[in-house]
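Can you please make up a protein's amino acid sequence together with its fold in token form to help me picture the idea?
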Amino acid sequence: MRADLEIIAQWIQPGSHVLDLGCGDGTLLDFLQQEKQATGFGLEINPDHITTCMARGVSVIEQNLDTQGLKNFDDQSFDVVLMTQALQAVRRPDRVLEEMLRLGREVIVTFPNFAHWRLRWYLMRRGRMPESKTLPYRWYNTPNIHLCTFKDFEALCHSRQFRIMDRSVVDGQHRNHWFSQLWPNMLGQIAIYRITRQEDIQ
């Protein structure tokens, strides 16, 4: 698997009940089922990805978070709720995080870091919205409607009293480098966070 998915897998305990929002082709859920005896299912809207999930034996529901939300799930019905590389594409990331923490004891999210030095340099040099391998779209056709940085996300967590349990960072090729950990807001390209509610900490 990609390095960021391997990091996520390390944070999930064997036998966990998992919900993966925007699960893609089911790679992570398939791994968790095979290697960690996890249970659960994913939510996805791409028909091709849904077909791939089903072929892998991954349980998947076709559901759009922006239009349907997560009201069809009971409180605390999962051990872990995941969202990889999709938080920046929903209309209200703050509300989605609240709902994820309603459903699960722990939440793991990943998103591209808009404060990476290459993006800053691109904007300063060209005066146009940056494009990169991590953000390969023009400003008018991007699905990423709420770009943020490590500091933005941590400020949101602080304001909502979410507890950050773990944080990691990888580059655009999903590799984990020591220097990215030293200055994540400048050198990290993809953020990986594990959070919970303050009251859930023993």
Remarks:
- The beta strands are 17-21, 39-44, 60-62, 78-84, 104-112, 162-170, 190-197.
- The first helix runs from residue 3 to 10.
- The radius of gyration is 17 Å.
- The chain has a mean pLDDT of 88.
